Amino acid sequence: MKQSSILRLLLVALTAVIGLIAVTVTILFTVFDLRVELAGNGIYPMVSFGNTSAHFDNLELNRSQHYSRLLPAGSSRSLAPFATASESVAASDTYWTDFRGPNRDGRYTQTPVRTSWPAIGLDPLWTQPIGGGYASFVVAQGLAFTIEQRRDEEVVSAYDVDTGREVWTHAWSANFTETMGGPGPRATPTWHEGHLYALGATGQFWCLDAKTGAMKWNRNILHDSAATNLAWAMSASPLIVDDLVIVQPGGASGWSVVAYNRETGDIVWHTLDDVQSYSSPMLVSVSGVRQILTVTAERAVGLRVEDGQLLWEFPWVTPTVPNMSQPIVFDEEYVFLSAGYGHGSALLNVVHTDGRYTVESVWQNNRMKNKFSSAVFHEGYIYGFDESILACIKAATGELQWKGGRYGYGQLLLASDHLVILSEHGDVVLVRATPERHDEVATFVAIEGKTWNVPALAEGRLLVRNAREMAAFDLTLQ
């Protein structure tokens, strides 16, 4: 056979293959609602199925079954007058009221949890659809609170912990979206003394009654500070300190960090000129001094609670994207920082003597690079994601102890000497927190789809969600 004939046959075969692929892809998109999203590395695609409109139809049908009556779209709706806290959860319980737990450090210490799981995994207490976004849950008085995107509205929602039943919602028009993460709010709400403080992606800031969802006051922190929204939107969870609620709009001319009166919404103080990061402020004690610790796009800082005065600082600039992970404070004088995009980690020694602070770098390396997850500290060791691989380092020296377990760009908590991991693909994984080796105890599929949301733990109940699904699991000792 002549060479030209062979080339023609190859061309025909190649055309047929390309045509078959095109038809297959068309069928997958049009018939099976194929969705392609980027994984946390920004390169590899994550494939899932499900039409957005159909998802919201299903969600709305599900929620309508939770209510005894339908209320107008876009308004607060509530079953609170008819609802009581779950019988098995004390109405007075207010443990997991902040992002990543009571101290924002990812440590669960309320009650021991079960660490012996069936080989097939744990059965959910409940599972159901949820709106978009990357917020976590906070839990108080039998209710779990989060914020989500439902069509063209951001919605603060309250759910009964034991049943998943929606108790109330408060919604407003907003629809932030970007290519990498997609649509939806990012910042986890904060519960305090019967009020819920919720920050939307575009700066809308609400103080709501935690029992009913009724508004107490509302501000827009970007408007107040004349700040430009971040590329991935407002993501820092509001922090309650005394009579203040602290937020981070990132405005110039002293409007980077702002304190509002938590009862009235009035501005109390504002400070710094930094562009903000995606990290949330924390209330900590460093060198015996109670203060606000946060990591901006430029530095780690300690701020005086009363007026926001800068107490100390350490340069911490991450190329490409502002900082995301939470710092860790241990032994009162040590602050651990970490960032992805090739940056790495550092341990600071912060000492306060004779009214002055000294800040020294104990070590810096690239053994752990928390991208948009945060690490935990346990018995002298730090456990967290080095980009997408789980790792353990010695806190005092930064020495790598082990690296293993490819869970993607997931999230983790510490409970009962174990790491409770929610992987990027929606798996719940249990890993023993030991510096000896990577010791995976159990794993199972909890929810489906890209999952960047931090899990929550309260009264032994594990709550997980992503942009499409939510579920609860019972980790109490049997």
How would you summarize this macromolecular structure in one to three sentences?
By secondary structure, this protein is mainly β. Helices cover 10% and strands 41% of the residues. Mean pLDDT is 90; it is low at 27-32, 69-75 and 81-89.
Q: If you had to describe this structure to a student in words, what would you say it looks like?
A:
With 478 residues, this protein is mainly beta. It folds into two domains: 3-32; 45-474, Methylamine Dehydrogenase, Chain H. It is 10% helix and 41% strand. The strands form ten sheets. A five-stranded antiparallel sheet has the order 3-9-8-7-6, with no helix packed on it. A five-stranded mixed sheet has the order 4-32-33-34-35, with no helix packed on it. A hairpin with a 4-residue loop joins strand 13 and strand 14. It is globular. The termini are far apart.
Question: What does the secondary structure layout of this molecule look like, with pairings?
Answer:
Blueprint: H1 3-30, E1 34-38, E2 45-49, H2 52-64, E3 77-78, E4 107-108, E5 124-129, E6 138-140, E7 143-150, E8 153-160, E9 166-173, E10 177-178, E11 182-183, E12 190-192, E13 195-199, E14 204-209, E15 215-220, H3 221-225, E16 239-241, E17 244-247, E18 257-261, E19 267-271, E20 282-286, E21 289-295, E22 299-303, E23 310-315, E24 328-330, E25 334-339, E26 344-353, E27 356-365, E28 376-378, E29 381-386, E30 389-394, E31 400-406, E32 411-415, E33 418-422, E34 427-432, E35 440-445, E36 456-458, E37 461-465, E38 469-474
Parallel strand pairs: 4-32
Antiparallel strand pairs: 1-2, 3-9, 5-38, 6-7, 7-8, 8-9, 10-11, 12-13, 13-14, 14-15, 16-17, 17-18, 18-19, 20-21, 21-22, 22-23, 24-25, 25-26, 26-27, 28-29, 29-30, 30-31, 32-33, 33-34, 34-35, 36-37, 37-38
